[in-house]
Amino acid sequence: MFSELQTEIEARYDIHFDDLSLLEEALTQANYINEHPNYHGRDYQRLEFLGDAIMQQSSAVYLFKRYPDWDEGRLTELRILMVQTRSFAALSRELHLDHYVQLGHGEEISGARNRDSLLEDLWEAFIGALYLDQGQDAVMNLLEQVFFSKIDTGFYDRFVDYKSKLQELLQKNGTVDINYQKISEEQIENNEQIFTVAVQLNGKQLAVGEGKSTKDAEKVAARRAYKDLTMDK
Questions:
Q1: CA quadruple 223, 229, 231, 233: dihedral positive or negative?
Q2: What are the tens digits of pLDDT across the range 91-145?
Q3: Active-site hit among 120, 124, 133, 218
Q4: 143 and 58 in contact (C-beta within 8 Å)?
Q5: Does residue 103 share a domain with residue 29?
Q6: For position 49, which CATH number holds?
């Protein structure tokens, strides 16, 4: 099974494990071992510990070098946004780690294979295993492909509550009237709809957003308004 994953990640990301037992350890949950008394391998928890530290350090170094003009606050904010549960869970799914993890029967039935908290652990354990097997250069090569490259795509924006951030920004000097108003609702192909919403401050329009629901459109409008207001700060 793990040789199949090895073949897949080697073809997609040019990553090769010399020691497949590390890859197996990274994808084995404790409950699986408890249910298989004759299994002699370890669960992923030690590798998860290592991978967590590696992700924190690698992200900090990358952002420090990429944004030489940013202060500590901005660097920390982006790092926290990147190094978090939903981000790591998405990366686990991208590498298909969820397909290969060895789970206990009860965990399988409860849907753990799709649980973000488990997938976060798997990503960190995988990074820990890769570091031990191939070193930091191999880790950075993978992160360049699947992690750091997402900064410019808006991938991490989906994890930000921009409506709350915008409200906090606009109300820092007192109460103001923040309103989201639907401008239009357009039918497109496949019977889908696109909603357009404007966010207003005391009746003045700040930004407009589009989405497949009014809620999604409001999020886009809030993100655009927040970024416009903080662009030079």
A1: negative
A2: 999 999 999 999 999 899 999 999 999 999 999 999 999 999 999 999 999 999 9
A3: 124
A4: yes
A5: yes
A6: 1.10.1520.10
pLDDT at 232 exceeding the cut of 60: no
Rounded to 5 degrees, φ, ψ at 83 are: -95, 75
The residue range of the domain holding 186 is 162-230
Show the CA angle centred on residue 161, arms to residues 60 and 174, nearest 5°: 110
Same domain assignment for residues 64 and 173: no
The answer to whether residues 178 and 199 touch, using CB atoms and an 8 Å cutoff, is yes
52 tagged catalytic: yes
Considering the candidates 24, 25, 43, 52, report the single residue annotated as catalytic.
52
Binding positions for Mg(2+): 48, 121, 124
75 and 177 assigned to the same domain: no
Q: What residue numbers does the annotated binding site cover?
A: 48, 121, 124
Q: 230: pLDDT confidence band, cut at 50, 70 and 90?
A: confident
35 carries an active-site annotation: no
